[in-house]
Specification:
Length: about 120
Amino acid sequence: MSEIVKVTKIAGTAVPIRGNDIDTDRIIPARYLKEVAFARIGDYTFFEENPRTEYTVDLESKTLSYGNHKITIDLPETYRNALTTGSWDSTTMLRANLDQVRKTASKLPYMSCFAS
């Protein structure tokens, strides 16, 4: 079994798109989905967004760099840890920390039917 590599930086051409609900036509316009083979489908991703800027996300310093700009990003520790360790299975993470989950849940009013 191979060793897990720790990711500390991600760099490459990026397309900054605001929001959590992205229209799929912005990712791959429908007219390009008529391809018989999907060998070139990657050529059409974000075709109309025309990405040209190189970005670097430094996961350790929590910064985003592009051109001559460097900005601090709001990256919760849980997200940073998931990116650097490759741990995306939230159910396993919750089960591994079940005592803390129960402790936190006991403080939530809707978990005790708002009883005081």
